Recover the amino acids of this structure.
């Protein structure tokens, strides 16, 4: 079944369907007899300041979440040294898992348009805490942050940790609602069925949803086969890697058994028949979400994924 045929087949369904394909996004809103679909390929992120200017009070509610909520800035929170150490230690462990050098820097100082030896899907960078922190013209150089400003410059000194910051949309009517209590989250998700299907990005999204729901009771994200050693290893910073998947819930009822969350990895376009079979499980279930994302394992070939 092609993508177009899939869209046509949705007319009899009564739920919300989202597909994320190879860096492009398709949102199909299914509502009884009508089907509308939206295709957009996001442009490269830039922080040059050439972003729309939103007038405070222009709207009473967010007029376009997909457009306006993604335009904004990160605001660093007040955090403790313990929080910073936990985040940096988590990153260190993740880099060790992927066999990345702890410094992020190659021995020969090359960076930018080159990879690490034997790790051809990671860009080589520079040690932000070393003497040559700026990747300048594909070589690690001793430059200040102000000097390390060019289209092909990479400087980890200017990066912040999203775990220690808040996203602030420029349009005040599109502000982010931060859920901190399980009862508030469950109030929003009550009686919902949510399928998260696709590649490792979708696995990460699924784990993030579980983290959000159980932020006050983190042990609830684990399956019964997870012992204390596995729980310690697969903590909130490390559990996104594949080796922790077997210890985390992938299908569970939560929010007083009113909400079902199902996560499944189907990561290539040639698995579309399995995806459709999963999709059909939601037939007749109102308030259902099917969120599907692939692309990386098909070389980000949008045309190929669409045809499949």
């Amino acid at each position: 079944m092609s993508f177009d045929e899939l869209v046509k087949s949705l007319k009899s369904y009564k739920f919300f369907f989202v597909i994320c394909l190879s860096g492009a996004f398709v949102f199909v809103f299914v509502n009884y007899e009508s089907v509308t679909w939206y295709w957009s390929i996001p442009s490269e992120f830039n922080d040059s300041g050439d972003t729309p200017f939103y007038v405070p009070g222009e709207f009473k509610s967010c007029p376009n979440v997909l457009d306006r909520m993604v335009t904004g800035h990160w605001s660093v929170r007040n955090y403790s040294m313990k929080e910073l150490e936990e985040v940096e230690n988590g990153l260190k462990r993740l880099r060790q898992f992927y066999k990345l050098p702890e410094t992020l820097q190659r021995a020969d100082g090359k960076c930018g348009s080159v990879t690490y030896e034997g790790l051809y899907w990671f860009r080589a960078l520079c040690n932000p805490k070393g003497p040559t922190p700026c990747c300048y013209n594909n070589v690690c150089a001793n430059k200040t942050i102000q000097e390390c400003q060019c289209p092909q410059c990479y400087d980890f000194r200017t990066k912040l940790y999203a775990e220690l910051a808040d996203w602030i949309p420029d349009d005040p009517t599109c502000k982010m609602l931060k859920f901190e209590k399980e009862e508030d989250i469950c109030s929003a998700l009550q009686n919902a069925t949510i399928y998260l299907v696709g590649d490792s990005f979708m696995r990460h999204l699924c784990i993030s949803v579980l983290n959000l729901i159980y932020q006050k009771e983190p042990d609830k994200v684990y399956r019964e086969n997870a012992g204390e050693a596995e729980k310690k290893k697969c903590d909130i910073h490390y559990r996104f890697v594949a080796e922790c998947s077997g210890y985390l819930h992938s299908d569970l009822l939560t929010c007083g058994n009113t909400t079902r969350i199902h996560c499944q990895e189907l990561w290539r376009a040639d698995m579309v028949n399995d995806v459709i079979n999963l999709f059909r499980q939601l037939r007749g279930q109102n308030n259902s979400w099917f969120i599907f994302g692939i692309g990386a394992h098909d070389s980000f070939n949008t045309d190929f994924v669409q045809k499949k």
Notes: The CA atoms of residues 20 and 125 lie 29 Å apart. The longest strand covers residues 24-31. The two ends are 7 Å apart (CA to CA).
